[in-house]
Amino acid sequence: MEFVSPEGLRLDGRRPMEMRQIRAEIGVVAKADGSAMFEMGNTKVVAAVYGPREVQNRSQQLNANALVRCEYTMANFSTGDRMRKPKGDRRSTEISLVIRQTMEECILTNLMPRSQIDIFVQVLQADGGTRSACINAATLALADAGIPMRDIVTSCSAGYLNSTPLLDLNYIEDSAGGTDVTLGIMPKLDKVTLLQMDAKLSLDTFENVMQLAIEGCKAVADYIREILLENTKQLQYRRGT
Amino acid sequence: MVGLSIGEKYFIQGGIAQDLRTDGRKRLSPRPIFVETGNISQSNGSARVRIGATEVIASVKAELGRPSALHPDKGKVSINVDCSPTAAPMFEGRGGEELSSELSVALQRCLLGGKSGSGAGIDLSSLAIVEGKICWDLYIEGLVVSSDGNLLDALGAAIKAALSNTGIPRVNVAAGASGDEQPEVDISDEEFLQFDTSKVPVIVTLTKVGRHYIVDATSEEESQMSLAVSISVNRQGNICGLTKRGGAGLDPSVILDMISVALSVSERLINTLDSQRAAAEAGKDEL
């Protein structure tokens, strides 16, 4: 199948180095301590953060750090074909773990010992790149909850199809069998916190693909900063200062 | 879980007794409702409903299936509700399953009628394509994204809005199939049939706190309830289903009183939903 036309356009009309439209909104779940919605094209996720609060299960309590927990759930209607998946299948458990580890790295857990922070991400629409969208939404939700962080974490995926590096794969490109690199970075510290890749790739091309993913992450980071700044301005305005 | 002090509890109960609730509403005035349709592109129809801080999403998917042997001239509808852990940390893991199934069963009772499908708010015979062979199966999925009480009414409104937004593809059945053969069908990509939702009921829940009952309770108020009666009413004023939750006993005459109150409340609710739908459609036409 041809994923990049001779004119250099992808199936959904994007250029290889173009991202899907991203949109974010803060404070979508009123009852949560922090929440955000993040859209990447047709992928749409909601993240809610509860905490820091008392540890629910005493045996898990950490005396030096905060306990960070994460749960990833997909709505039944989020995918194209309808299927009932039991809660806590292997894929969601793995993604929960990935998100938890990525976010734990950027939260200053040592400031909140003996407490617990819950991150819940809910996929409303899945069209490839749910992992990245979840991490971006979780970052925004954590920031909205006012949890101290080293830096924001942003994520973006890149792939390699038809010997072209492609940024931000959608579902069709993702399931095409080519390489899929999911990358998460802390843009200010310039550190990679998440890196996952499947399928094989030569070292030279990997470098290109990864560079592309880094560029994507940075673009997302710029957008997220803008949204956070806008939100802070709103809060300041409401406070009347 | 709502954690309230004794003072807060008395404040809520006392306010309801004096017809002035904590958010300034009267006992029988609902919160404003916001409806947005067609926001889940993967499904045939979808709607998002917001009542105060409660937010639910309903999606309708249509698939071809075989009608059941008992009712060859009817389609099938299933309703399923999920509680997302984003709504409350207690829904994490399997924590939300009890509430999810309670809501699903209540919705099925209120919208789908008896086991035979008679008296259903959704016209099941309109889903039949070839009698005994092919019919549409509607899968209605509800998702609770944010919870601040009155979930059942919000889900009922969301399902009604999602059904009115649903387009079912027109199906052409190839002639010539006879006997036991499964006829060939051709699903049109362009032509969609709108679903008749004028008879789909809305649900009104009356929550009894102390000696009085209120509509559209928040989760704080729900924590103080002794019982709740959910009544589903359609535009014609017919009662399509009833569910009582909570353990306390209820005087039969009070039930009749509650039903008449639910009728008047539902009329306002249906009008609001219809006008929002009309406004949304008008907005789309302009674009």
Automatic annotation (TrEMBL), chain A:
GO terms for molecular function: RNA binding; transferase activity. One of its GO terms (cellular component) is nuclear exosome (RNase complex). This is Putative polyribonucleotide nucleotidyltransferase, PNPase/RNase PH domain-containing protein. Keywords: Cytoplasm, Exosome, Transferase. The lineage of its organism: Eukaryota, Viridiplantae, Streptophyta, Embryophyta, Tracheophyta. The keyword Cytoplasm applies. Residues 18-148, 151-216 form the Exoribonuclease phosphorolytic domain. Belongs to the RNase PH family. It is found in: Cytoplasm; Nucleus, Nucleolus. InterPro entries: ExoRNase_PH_dom1 (IPR001247), ExoRNase_PH_dom2 (IPR015847), ExoRNase_PH_dom2_sf (IPR036345), PNPase/RNase_PH_dom_sf (IPR027408), Ribosomal_Su5_D2-typ_SF (IPR020568), RNase_PH (IPR050080). GO terms for biological process: nuclear mRNA surveillance; poly(A)-dependent snoRNA 3'-end processing; rRNA catabolic process; U4 snRNA 3'-end processing.
From TrEMBL, chain B:
One of its GO terms (biological process) is nuclear mRNA surveillance. GO terms for molecular function: mRNA 3'-UTR AU-rich region binding. The keyword Glycosyltransferase does not apply. Residues 31-169, 200-264 form the Exoribonuclease phosphorolytic domain. InterPro entries: ExoRNase_PH_dom1, ExoRNase_PH_dom2, ExoRNase_PH_dom2_sf, Exosome_comp_Rrp42_subfam, PNPase/RNase_PH_dom_sf, Ribosomal_Su5_D2-typ_SF. The keyword Cytoplasm applies. GO terms for cellular component: cytoplasmic exosome (RNase complex); nuclear exosome (RNase complex); nucleolus. SUPFAM superfamilies: Ribonuclease PH domain 2-like, Ribosomal protein S5 domain 2-like. Keywords: Cytoplasm, Exosome. It is found in: Cytoplasm; Nucleus, Nucleolus. PANTHER family: EXOSOME COMPLEX COMPONENT RRP42, EXOSOME COMPLEX EXONUCLEASE RIBOSOMAL RNA PROCESSING PROTEIN. Belongs to the RNase PH family. This is Ribosomal RNA-processing protein 42.
